[in-house]
Every structure is written in structure tokens, then in C-alpha cells.
């Protein structure tokens, strides 16, 4: 989220939220997620716990904020479009748009958050739960109660998510190695992953034919 078009009050709230995310990621990375208390975090940012809970529901929420900001933008874009006619290419393009719309410095915060998540079981569980919630939100919005359409949409969306995870893993590894790749490098890996999806579909069709022939 950027500050363009926001009121002064909204800009202050956004800056407080970002300060909480930055400091949370620093403390969690240095001290450990479980070892860092909420009191330490709010004292470091010089805000109250009440302010924290106006922005986040939990320590897990603030630790995974970069990921959740991305998927909130993604789901909002999906919900702004007509429910009919969206296909895999649209799902992919909307993800490119969501990444492009993230605020400056998002990629660094995202990589730090992802690394923290990978070594913290509580965050892995929270991230998986959130992914399931986003998937349900997107699929329910587009399926509109049609069971057959729901299955097709869910499988399509999950396929895109698998490609996204591969691209993210490759990009994050390069970032952590010190190369510091930006969003263009992430886009490149996304394009590579998404371009492979038709080959997966072709392989599935080929296996189906073999099965029928047998």
C-alpha cells in the first residue's frame, strides 16, 4: 500500500504500521519469534498495545504482514472484477499487478518475513492457514455456489500457487545470498514458472490418454 491519495491521519497510521512491521521483523530475526514479547515490540516503536491491536491481530499477523498485504491486494482485485470469465492467465496477471503495487521496500521485508517463517513452526502453520483462507475467498467469489466450477477454479488457482511458490523460492534464495534481486528478478522467475504450466497440463493429458489406452 502506498501513501498516494491518503489523508494525513491515514498516512500516520500507515507509517505506524510499517514501523511495527520493520521492528517486529528485526526483533524476531535477532531474538527469535517466541522469545520476543509484545511489550518489547511496542516499547521499541513507542506505541501502546492498543495501537498494535488496531493494526494487527497477533504476533503472527505482524510477522507475516508482507505476505498478507500482497494477498489482500490480490483478493481485492479479484473481487473488483466480474465473476465470470477469469482464467489462469488472469490469475497470473493479477498477481503481477499485486506485486507491482506493493510499497517501496516490500521485497526486502517479504524475504525477511519468509526466512523467519521457514524456521518458525508457528508461522508456517499461520501462513498455511492464511493461504487456505485466501484460496477459499477467491474461489467462493468466482464459483458462486457452482460445485463443478468451484473444483475447476480451485485446481487452477492451486496450480498457479505452486508455480508462484517455486518462483518465490528461487528469488528468495538469490536475495538471501546477497545478490539483492529486486522485483524485476521476481517477475522473471514468475514468468518462467507460469510458462511451465501448459507443459504440466499437457503431461496430465498425456498420462490420461495412456491410462485410457491401458
From TrEMBL:
It comes from the Bacteria. Pfam families: TetR_N. Keywords: DNA-binding, Transcription, Transcription regulation. Residues 14-74 form the HTH tetR-type domain. Signal peptide: none annotated. Residues 37-56 bind DNA. This is TetR/AcrR family transcriptional regulator. It comes from Streptomyces carpaticus.
